[in-house]
Amino acid sequence: MNAHSAQLTKMKLSDRVVMLKPVSKAKNPILMKRKNMFKLSSFLTRNNPTSAASTDGDRTRNDEAIKSLRDVIAFCMLPPPPTDGAAGW
Q1: From CA 74, how far away is CA 80, in angstroms rounded?
Q2: Residue 32, SS3 per DSSP
Q3: Sign of the alpha-carbon torsion through 71, 75, 80, 83
Q4: Which listed residue, of 11, 35, 48, 62, carries a Cα 20 to 30 Å from 76's Cα?
Q5: Distance from C-alpha of 75 to C-alpha of 7, rounded to nearest angstrom
Q6: pTM for the whole thing?
Q7: Which stretches of the chain are DSSP H helices?
Q8: 71-77, long-range: CB within 8 Å, 24+ apart, which pairs?
Q9: Each residue of 33-76: pLDDT tens digit?
Q10: Contacts of 51 (CB under 8 A, 6+ apart)
């Protein structure tokens, strides 16, 4: 072992023991926000039956938008064959 590596070995810090909190006790703002959003949506659905119906309507509108977007992407990737019978572009 040369002098430089021996010096580096002496300078090396020892590994520290790290103890992590369980996820249930940690204060993670992202998880807290998700939990609050879930509580709020379930509270609104439970107390207002019309909100459940409006959620279904929103889902239907979103599904239609997703289908339209899917069709546009499919057209861009695989355009329909030309109608005049020409091969390729």
Answers
A1: 10
A2: helix
A3: positive
A4: 62
A5: 65
A6: 0.28
A7: 3-11, 29-47, 49-77
A8: none
A9: 888 887 877 767 776 666 555 556 666 777 888 888 888 888 88
A10: 44, 45
